[in-house]
């Protein structure tokens, strides 16, 4: 059994490209990134740029998962947790009126939509890993 179905590889490659692009935008296009999410640009760009670096690194990680899912399974698990916890944190800031409600669409399309497929991919990797382990014994 193949570790990933074709749609899973395609999704991981798409998310890899999306994250690298979004991360580079946060790193080098801070003014536009703040404007896009409806926030006033602060005096220092470091927090957004640091997040941009992490987002781009996760993008590279998703590419590695697409190439070798069993070996890089933990990268996908970290991505799942990052997307889930980031969505909870973003929702909290919207609910206390510290972020505009339109920001919800940012993490809806950047994070929340990937939670179910990431979970499915992890379950498939686990199943394949168990089957491969059983066939070796």
What brief labels describe this structure?
mainly alpha, 0% strand, 137 residues, single chain, 6 helices
Question: Any overview of this molecule?
Answer:
The chain is mainly alpha-helical. It has one domain (6-136). Helices cover 77% and strands 0% of the residues. α1 (6-28) packs antiparallel against α3, α3 (46-67) packs antiparallel against α4 (73-95) and α4 (73-95) runs antiparallel to α6 (115-136). It is elongated. The relative contact order is 0.16.
Which SSEs are present, and which pair or pack?
Elements: H1 6-28, H2 30-36, H3 46-67, H4 73-95, H5 103-110, H6 115-136
Helix pairs in contact: 1-3, 3-4, 4-5, 4-6
């Amino acid at each position: 059994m193949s570790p990933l179905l074709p749609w899973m590889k395609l999704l991981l490659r798409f998310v890899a490209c999306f994250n690298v692009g979004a991360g580079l935008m946060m790193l080098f296009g801070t003014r536009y990134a703040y404007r896009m999410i409806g926030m006033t640009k602060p005096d220092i760009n470091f927090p957004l740029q640091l997040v941009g670096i992490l987002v781009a690194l996760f993008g590279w990680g998703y590419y590695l998962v697409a190439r070798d899912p069993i070996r890089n399974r933990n990268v996908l698990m970290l991505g799942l947790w990052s997307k889930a916890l980031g969505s909870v944190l973003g929702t909290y800031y919207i609910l206390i009126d510290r972020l505009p409600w339109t920001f919800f669409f940012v993490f809806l399309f950047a994070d929340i939509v990937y939670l179910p497929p990431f979970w499915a991919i992890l379950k498939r990797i686990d199943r394949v890993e168990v089957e491969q382990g059983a066939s070796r014994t």
